[in-house]
Amino acid sequence: MHDVGRSAFSNFEGSTGKNELTSHLLERDKLMPLYMAKRQDDYTSTAPFNVFVGTWNVNGQLPTEPLDAWVSSEATPPDVYAIGFQELDLSKEAFVFTESSREEEWMRAVKQALHPGASYKLVKHIRLVGMMLLVFAQDRHLQDITAVASHHVGTGLLGKMGNKGGVGIRIMLHNSSLCFINSHLAAHLEEIQRRNQDYEDICSRMKFPDPEGQSISVFSNDVLIWLGDLNYRIDKLPLETVKERIEKGQYEKLKEHDQLTNQRREGNVYPDFEEGDLTFRPTYKYNPGTDEWDTSEKCRCPAWCDRILWKESAKAKLLKYQAHLSLKISDHKPVSAVFKINVKVINRELYRKVYEEEIRRLDRMENEWLPTMVLNQHSLEFGTVKFQQAVQRTVEILNTGQTPCHFEFIGKLGEKAFCKPWLTVGKPKGYVLPGDKLVIEFEVYVNKNTAPSLNKEEDKIEDILILHLVGGKDFFITVNGKYSPSCFGTSIEALCWMKKPIEQMDRKELTRLIKSRDWQVNNEKHHSSQMLNVPKELWRLLDHLYQYARHQPDLFQQPGLHEELKMIQENLDSQLPTVGTPLPGSNHSVAEALLIFLEALPEPVIPFEYYNMCLQLYNNYDQGQELIHKMPPHHVNVFNYIISFLQELPKYEENGLNLHLLATIFSGLLLRPSSVQRKQNTEGRMDRMKATSFIEMFLKKKL
Predict the structure, then answer these.
(1) pTM (2 decimals)?
(2) Which of 591, 498, 493 is closest to 545 using CA atoms?
(3) Structural domains counted in the chain
(4) Tens digit of pLDDT for each residue in 504-563?
(5) Range of the domain at 662
(6) Which of 315, 313, 312 is nearest to 344 (CA)?
(7) C-alpha distances in angstroms, 206 versus 131, 166, 181, 215?
(8) CATH no. for residue 97?
(9) Which of 10, 232, 344, 452 suits a disulfide with 259, CB 3.0-4.6 Å?
């Protein structure tokens, strides 16, 4: 609607004279969409559009067979295509390095299979490691597609690695917003909670930019369609019973044991979404190249892993939902859904008429009234804030005047940002129409970047925000909270001085230890007997993983659960190590806690000053070892301790680890550039490869 508004505005400008096009009216160009949205029934009508949605987990295979039986399965050419893939690349390094050579090959295969009854162009595509989403539209619709945006969310290790997660594309088709999300959620029969967590993470973190530079959530759309390998399984039935019901076509009875169906019924995931009837065979798991169920050693139970759902909406009607069993290259079968979507189409003449009416009404309001608004509160109390545990609060704005309120958070004198880096404001600027309310969300979230200054008490959870009302007064909102110091975000030296858990430390003594890094380094030689060789928190993490997780399949390749990570952090911060007592949570959660601990170190295990020298010595072990021994003593201890631990893991085949994969995962944590070095870096991928080689060089040597 934004682009159409500009077109109508140009017509309005021509009919009334260019002299009236003032900067004041240009400001209205941002305000008018709000008024026009309230009156869209006066200038729009609906028209049906056919949208084809497809999903396929291709199991790392190349497109060696035509895709026509899937992509061109309908007699009528779709107006829009949204096609998602998962597992384009199954290499072990793929979830760390985002590059993949498979993208072009699969994109070309899809283009060749598009319906021959129409001409199509690619509107947008996005890929995150093995996930890719393509949106095509018929040529005749391209002029009516605007505001195209995309985003991706990784839910793998450290909440960002892209072996699992989602990719999304949002478009405006005429005056309707369509959003497509392609996701690959956590695998394995028992990981229901992790799949639900992946869904929640994608929903909360998937944001699309709007023309004003703000963000649009996945739920702020007229139509939302979610596709992908959601990985929910059939459980609590013997394998032979599942196969027997499939052969008899007893899909309704089988659906009673479908995890996604049951999780939706319980309200745990995909609330207010709809799905078509499952009238087709489960799409996983087949012997590749056949229609036979899995006969491998694992003998996976059949399941409807591959699904397409849509948010309840009167605008979208499902016409067909099916699997395409004739395609055999993968262990999954592709799935498609065809929708009839009633799109709001603008009548340009009516639009211009309504636009002019609203302009004249706005003129009268501005001449007669000043903007006024009230806030429901002026103070935000966030309570106790902990590392990587978000706390949200809201403020409600009410426009009590007769004219629109244009608000914006502005920085204090001499400050570029209007808020501290640990605070996020959901809508930093915008408009509120007369009589309307707007809820603004505020989130405090302390991460690896902001924890060190809070641990040192160089910063506090305190701020004053200035909410500026254009043409009116300023409002002041105070922010208060108390940060609970954590071993996460505390230096190696400071932790080695602490004999007690960080929560039991006297705050003044803690602050002195954390702040006095130079003093500590200079005195380590004189006081080494008073210090721990390595941080006790690191010892606890590695000891747990060695004692309980060295046989764990997919170790360091599966993310942990948020709630378990909180428990592990609180345990490390509040309790001393006890021999024989494991940390709380699953092995995967402890493994991710280790990675988060290393990532949050203010100075990495290999200090920043050694970064470039290490890259230069990536293939010279003797000089590399010499360099390592020049580091501060406790950094040397930690480096040797971690390398020794990692060298042990590949001895246990069940975990699926090898030295190269471990070097790939840990190199970015042990050997990472500072923010300044990162900005100067022009050899991104090459430097990452050198860092991996440097760490792998030590893993292959006996210390």
Answers:
(1) 0.88
(2) 591
(3) 3
(4) 998 888 888 887 654 444 454 445 557 899 999 999 999 999 999 999 999 998 999 999
(5) 540-700
(6) 315
(7) 15, 8, 9, 9
(8) 3.60.10.10
(9) 232
